[in-house]
């Protein structure tokens, strides 16, 4: 359980932020979770890897209330996929 006082609140997979009365949302990444996915050289079926990419982009689209938040998440996904090979 994370205790924090401020203008933002993580709720499930969404980061809720209050900026002077304007509510904005973005994707929340848990600090305890590793930013890795299944390596592309693993023996998993090929559809697993396309599902990871598709689901990550859909999540970014649904949870980002601002275009800047979406672009940040898109860059995060790109780096995560590059890191995993």
From TrEMBL:
Short name of any one Pfam family annotated for the protein: HTH_animal
Leader sequence residues: none
Domain Helix-turn-helix: residue ranges: 36-85
InterPro entries: HTH_animal (IPR058912)
PANTHER family in the record: REVERSE TRANSCRIPTASE (PTHR21301), REVERSE TRANSCRIPTASE DOMAIN-CONTAINING PROTEIN (PTHR21301:SF10)
UniProt-recorded name of the protein: Helix-turn-helix domain-containing protein
Lineage, top ranks: Eukaryota, Metazoa, Spiralia, Gnathifera, Rotifera
């Amino acid at each position: 359980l994370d205790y924090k006082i401020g203008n933002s609140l993580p709720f499930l997979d969404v980061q809720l932020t209050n900026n002077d009365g304007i509510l904005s949302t973005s994707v929340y990444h848990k600090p305890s979770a590793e930013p890795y996915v299944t390596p592309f050289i693993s023996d998993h079926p090929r559809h697993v890897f396309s599902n990871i990419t598709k689901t990550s982009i859909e999540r970014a689209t649904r949870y980002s209330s601002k275009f800047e938040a979406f672009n940040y998440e898109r860059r995060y996904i790109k780096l995560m996929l590059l890191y995993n090979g």
